[in-house]
């Protein structure tokens, strides 16, 4: 039952071969079975999930089913869910029950999807390995001694281990694509402004964007159809005609112009991964696509610029967690200052504090121009690099991550090594572009992701290009032996 895609499950539900309650029970059972080994969830929603499934089955019987009615999904614990704990992976919000629903989860509720639970994540989405979570590290289903990527590591592990047919993630610097790559699943970060950020706990507001994670490009298209769209409650949401992301999936690849940036094939890239990517490119070529060398001349400073801009925004966004309004409050504060200081120092983890300190520093008046302003200028140049590239190519391809999944603990003491995990994904966020990662092979039995970057609002083309690849390959159908 858990081997099926959403596209197949839809047919089975509509044909009454299976009910949403049966499906939901099956997934909940798997989630509980593997929770102690994977730690993919922070909250498991047994009761509400079954109640939603009962309602979905009624809707299906009445002939009112939409694409996701009765489909169980896992939601990253960054989306506020009314009445259900939303922790954002932090001790600070360990006791936080949101009084309102995020737009993304509201859309899933309206569509009749079932929420199986809230997935584990790096604290406040800061990390590339899921090790910064207050709830402990998540394990990669392909090798339990390795990380599932981050920050959406619970969501990626859940799909890879088939604990949910699809999940949601958020991507500020790579947090959908990198975990998708490291666990052998698909994920897409949409164009900035395509999916509402309302009720999605903010890390770096000018970069954060939510997207789906799943088994196939087709499933991503199906889930994105529900997630995306203009939201008057988010001032950065973009108003444009609704796209059907499934409509273009079957376009042939002939004539597709693929740009391959030299900047993505640096010495940091594992040569075996480079070989996997080259094989994928050859396959595209065999289908009539053409390959073009492009340069993204500022990609080498993207990570540095990001680690000024993202912490600067985070230092501002996280100032709301002060022990007064939300979440954790220290015991017996002596006075107001003591309340602020101890609530924050006890409630926030090391990486989050590091970011707040870096960001506060970058914004301080004596270094503002040299740090923050400079980073913003670099950001403009990076955006321009992409715009120049898209003058001559339709999509850009390369590796998602320089390495396959690394060992738990391997980079947690070395922030720079951790930050460089996103060296091929970060520029896409700085430019606000859409980008996906799909499975393209294995190196030493660990999955490798192919990154596909598109022009603004060209998600449908990215998904088309990914879907066509999946008609010719079966990397996306591989599942880890222990979770078959
Ligand atoms: N790994 C990057 C960071 O730690 C990106 C995280 C994300 O995309 N949420 O900031």
Structure report:
With 484 residues, the protein is an alpha/beta fold. It folds into 2 domains: 6-255 and 392-483, Alpha-Beta Complex (Amidase signature (AS) enzymes), CATH 3.90.1300; 300-376, no CATH class. Helix content is 38%, strand content 13%. It has 15 helices and 11 strands. It has helices at 6-14, 20-38, 46-61, 103-111, 153-160, 177-183, 217-227, 271-286, 302-317, 336-347, 350-362, 369-389, 415-419, 426-431, 459-472, and strands at residues 41-44, 72-76, 114-119, 166-170, 186-189, 210-214, 257-261, 290-294, 395-399, 435-443, 446-454. The strands form 2 sheets. An 8-stranded mixed beta sheet has the order 4-6-5-10-11-9-7-8. The longest helix is centred in the C-terminal third of the chain and has 21 residues, at 369-389. It is globular, with a radius of gyration of 21 Å. The N and C termini lie close together (10 Å). Glutamine is lined by residues 125-128, 151, 170-175, 203, 310, 422. Glutamine (GLN) is lined by residues 125-128, 151, 170-175, 203, 310, 422.
* Secondary structure tally, helices: 15
Instruction: Give me the CATH superfamily of the largest domain.
Output: Amidase signature (AS) domain
Low-confidence stretches: none
Query: Taking Cα atoms only, what radius of gyration do you get, to the nearest Å?
Result: 21 Å
Residues in β-strands, percent: 5-15%
Q: What is the approximate shape?
A: globular
The neighbouring-strand order within the major sheet is 4-6-5-10-11-9-7-8
The biggest sheet, with number of strands, parallel, antiparallel or mixed sense and barrel status, is: 8 strands, mixed
Report the average pLDDT across residues.
97
CATH T-level fold name of the largest domain: Amidase signature (AS) enzymes
Helix fraction bin: 25-40%
- For the record, the CATH class of the largest domain is Alpha Beta
**In the CATH classification, which architecture of the largest domain applies?**
Alpha-Beta Complex
> How do the helices and strands follow one another from N- to C-terminus?
HHEHEHEHEHEEHEHEHHHHEHHEEH
Summed up, the domain count is 2
Q: Can you count the beta strands?
A: 11
N- to C-terminal distance: 10 Å
Structural class: alpha/beta
Distinct small-molecule ligands in the complex: glutamine
